[in-house]
Design a protein that fits this description.
Low-confidence stretches of chain A: none
Oligomer: heterodimer
Structural class of chain B: alpha+beta
CATH topology of the largest domain in chain B: Enolase-like, domain 1
Mean pLDDT of chain A: 95
Shape of chain B: globular
CATH superfamily of the largest domain in chain A: Beta-grasp domain
Strand order of the largest sheet of chain B: 4-5-10-6-7
CATH architecture of the largest domain in chain B: 2-Layer Sandwich
Distance between the termini of chain B: 30 Å
CATH architecture of the largest domain in chain A: Roll
Helix content of chain B: 25-40%
Number of helices of chain A: 5
Radius of gyration of chain A: 16 Å
CATH class of the largest domain in chain A: Alpha Beta
Structural class of chain A: alpha+beta
Distance between the termini of chain A: 54 Å
Radius of gyration of chain B: 19 Å
CATH superfamily of the largest domain in chain B: CO dehydrogenase flavoprotein, C-terminal domain
Order of helices and strands of chain A: EEHEEEHHHH
CATH class of the largest domain in chain B: Alpha Beta
Largest sheet of chain B: 5 strands, antiparallel
Number of domains of chain B: 3
Shape of chain A: globular
CATH topology of the largest domain in chain A: Ubiquitin-like (UB roll)
Number of helices of chain B: 11
Strand content of chain B: 25-35%
Helix content of chain A: 25-40%
Largest interface: A-B, 37 and 34 residues
Low-confidence stretches of chain B: none
Strand content of chain A: 15-25%
Number of strands of chain A: 5
Number of domains of chain A: 2
């Protein structure tokens, strides 16, 4: 084990807010978000790159924040579930998940909503197959996915109409 | 889960990265997409004392066409390849990129990292072995070109020296009349396939002029099935010829029993995947559109 590990200075924007931090290299992005920035909406599920509960957007691309070191997010813009809501108003994706009962325990929901955000940013008329493919990296153990699927269809309608 | 503590080095160029590897010695590893390495480090199966991060080097992610081939920068993400019109000139390459794991992993994982990792269950080596593929390797003494077949030596072992890295992957675009298909059988998106088969066929009417057949996840490396290729070459696709190719594939497979299935099951499965891939590839070789790549149990 190396005796002293140098911390690394990083700057990043999270939900539009700039941060300058000194981080230990082995700190994972999800831990930076949850522990240093107190953004606990991003969840740790499997911690092994399987379940997608920790999904956030990095420069618009969905990533598993348990499978990135925080130092790799230097200079990046991160969007977490806390950044979806604007001025006290739910994002259309959040509203659609509520309206379609697209969640039960809610543990996987932030990750699913951010995977949905990447999908709808690039494609506002996703086919059924495209929706399924977009959330294939997000595991839900409650819903059986049907209502999540409906929520994404509903969100696509709202986003398209907006 | 925290990995063991390590020193972090951010390379400004690929040349600087190999210099760092050379100076830091065996305790240093490269960080590309990190989608295999970081989980291994969290589980403490890999415990490097130094990580050299390649992700901040500009100009390492690109897809270019040159002299009838495609050149992929080592840090080109799977998602970039999946979305590339140029990469779609080789349908089997598009299919591979678009089907690896899930959206999140494809956004991070890289073609160079995948080849250099040489995971027996990785997708890229299986697909690229059916094509004329060369790996450009950069070391402290300059760059060299290694044919893919000679690049992958064993499970997690490549021709790379410790202070070498993959700088580029070059793939020849198959001639007209050639078509390929890659079918990986998975239990869910994020997991590695249970077994996979890549087939590239060159057809002259109904007769197969050339065939390349490679299996994945059923041995320590991707397995090129010469006997199956011979069974097809010079023949039209009768039930008998396809059955011979399937049997050759099952015989060449050397799978391990694990949580994804027993060795017997995988041997049978890979034969069936070869059959499906032959059918899809032969349609594509005739210019017909066929949608097939990763399938889920």
């Amino acid at each position: 084990m190396p005796e002293t590990i140098e911390k690394v200075a990083i700057r990043l924007k999270v939900n539009g807010k700039p941060h300058s931090l000194q981080v230990e290299p082995r700190k994972l992005l999800v831990e930076l978000l949850r522990e240093d920035l107190d953004l606990t909406g991003t969840h740790v599920g499997c911690d092994t790159t399987y379940c997608g509960a920790c999904t956030v957007l990095m420069n618009g691309a969905a990533v598993k924040s348990c499978t990135m070191f925080a130092v790799q997010a230097d200079g990046a813009e991160i969007l977490t579930v806390e950044g979806l809501e604007k001025d006290g108003k739910l994002h259309p994706i959040q509203a659609a998940f509520g309206d379609s009962y697209g969640l039960q325990c809610g543990y996987c929901t932030p990750g699913l909503m951010l995977s949905t955000a990447q999908l709808l940013a690039n494609n506002q008329q996703p086919s059924d197959a495209q929706i399924r493919k977009a959330i294939a990296g997000n595991t839900c153990r409650c819903t059986g996915y049907q209502n999540i699927f409906k929520a994404i269809q509903r969100a696509a309608q709202t986003v398209k109409g907006a | 889960m925290y990995p063991r503590a390590f020193h972090y080095h951010r390379a400004g160029s690929l040349t600087e990265a190999v210099t760092m590897l050379s100076q830091l010695g065996d305790d240093a590893k490269l960080l590309a997409g990190g989608q295999s390495l970081i989980p291994l480090m969290k589980l403490r199966f890999a415990n490097p004392g130094h990580l050299v991060d390649l992700n901040f080097i500009s100009g390492t992610s690109y897809i270019q066409e040159e002299d009838g081939g495609l050149r992929f920068g080592a840090l080109t993400r799977h998602a970039e390849i999946a979305d590339s019109a140029l990469a779609a000139k080789i349908p089997i390459v598009h299919d591979c990129a678009a089907g690896i794991a899930d959206v999140q992993v494809r956004n991070r994982g890289t073609i160079g990292g995948s080849l250099a990792e040489a995971d027996p269950s990785g997708d890229w080596a299986v697909v690229l072995m059916t094509l004329a593929t060369e790996v450009r390797c950069l070391g402290t003494n300059g760059e060299r070109t290694v044919p893919l077949a000679g690049f992958v030596k064993d499970a997690y072992t490549t021709a790379l020296a410790h202070d070498e890295l993959v700088s580029e992957v070059r793939v020849k675009i198959p001639a007209k009349g050639s078509g390929g298909a890659y079918i990986a059988f998975k239990r869910s998106a994020p997991v590695y396939p249970t077994a996979s088969a890549a087939v590239q066929l060159t057809m002259d009417g109904d007769v197969c002029k050339d065939a390349a057949i490679v299996l994945g996840c059923v041995g320590l490396t991707a397995i090129k099935v010469t006997d199956a290729e011979v069974a097809l070459r010079g023949h039209s696709f009768t039930d008998k010829a396809i059955k011979a190719a399937m049997e050759a594939a099952s015989a060449a497979a050397d799978p391990q029993s694990d949580m994804r299935g027993s060795a017997d099951y995988k041997r049978t499965l890979v034969g069936a995947l070869v059959k499906r891939a032959i059918e899809a590839a032969s349609h594509r070789a005739r210019g017909e559109q066929v949608e097939v790549s990763h399938i889920y149990a």
